[in-house]
Design brief:
alpha+beta, Toxin ADP-ribosyltransferase, Chain A, domain 1, Serine Threonine Protein Phosphatase 5, Tetratricopeptide repeat, 56% helix, elongated
Length: 312
């Protein structure tokens, strides 16, 4: 996954490249790729042993490439890239990805790709096919490639999946429901947290705080940074971030605004995990007071609030 600072700095170029791929894809579907039906592309790269072990445990499941996916129709050239991993790092697994692509799935599921033979770095030496970000595949099988000079060389057989895949549909629906309350870069930070990438979420929110231009943004990013610290078990830092967010909200919002209730709730949870039970109870009771003012008596948020008080 790319560094957060690089993602922020390159966001314009990422968006522009994605749009170019979307524009060129239907034009190129009148070419030989469409005529030949399904086709195979290859990608050689090194993976950390930890990530490779995870991939072996999810055979039959889904995987996504987080960046733009550069592939080749030349197996031997891609195999050379796989071998480079052994040269650069002896603690990595060297993977040759073999991907089965059905252009029909791409068209039905809006998965754009383009051939960049004339524009790519290798030009005549390689038929490069570039897929947009977060293209999803199913891991069909993983097998070792016998090589006299490299005992860490593996072949991963993948098949492109589209919108008619039930597992992918269920996963995307769950994620969409999870992130619907967030927008923009905050949504990316939320996804980082859900993926267990707390360090990347922390880095993102710290950068966003530096660039924040309004009190609303300062309150929002401090609140989310507090959530990151909470998930990392750094409760003192979580408390500081939540309290900074709360103080900013108090300036711009009515005293009984629902956002204040959420802040008091999270502060109460932090105090509870720090063993400061009287402060935790006070925060949860203040959160409940606000809910009683702004919500109908049968609202489901009351269950969570009473549960927090009961736990204390």
């Amino acid at each position: 996954m790319m560094d957060v600072d690089i993602i922020l700095k390159m966001s314009f170029f990422i968006r522009d490249l994605h749009r170019d791929i979307e524009k060129l894809h239907p034009e190129q579907q009148q070419s030989s790729l469409k005529a030949t039906g399904s086709f195979t592309v290859y990608r050689g790269q090194g993976l950390s042993q930890e990530n490779f072990d995870k991939m072996k445990q999810t055979i039959g499941g889904l995987m996504s490439f987080n960046n733009f996916l550069s592939t080749s129709q030349q197996r031997e050239l891609s195999l050379q890239y796989a071998h480079l991993g052994a040269i650069e790092n002896s603690n990595r697994a060297d993977i040759l990805f073999i991907m089965n692509i059905d252009p029909g799935i791409c068209s039905k599921s809006s998965i754009p790709f383009v051939t960049v033979k004339d524009e790519g770095y290798f030009k005549d030496n390689e038929t490069e096919i570039l897929f947009t970000t977060h293209t999803v595949f199913r891991i069909d099988s993983i097998e070792q490639i016998l090589d006299a000079h490299n005992n860490r060389l593996w072949q991963a057989n993948l098949t492109l999946v589209g919108n008619d895949d039930n597992e992918l549909n269920n996963l995307t629906a769950h994620l969409r429901d999870d992130v619907k309350r967030t927008t923009g870069w905050s949504r990316l930070g939320y996804i980082f947290i859900k993926l267990g990438e707390s360090a990347k979420a922390k880095q993102l929110y710290e950068i966003l705080l530096e660039k924040a231009s309004s009190d609303e943004d300062l309150a929002k990013y401090n609140h989310q940074l507090g959530w990151v610290y909470y998930n990392m078990g750094e409760y003192s830092k979580a408390l500081s971030s939540y309290e900074r967010s709360l103080e900013i909200k108090k300036i711009g919002l009515p005293l009984n605004h629902p956002d204040l209730s959420a802040s008091y709730l999270n502060i109460g949870n932090v105090y509870y995990n720090m063993g400061e039970y009287s402060k935790a109870l006070s925060s949860h009771e203040r959160s409940l007071e606000i809910l009683k003012i702004v919500l109908p008596p049968n609202h489901p948020d009351f269950a969570s609030s009473y549960n927090n008080i009961g736990n204390v």
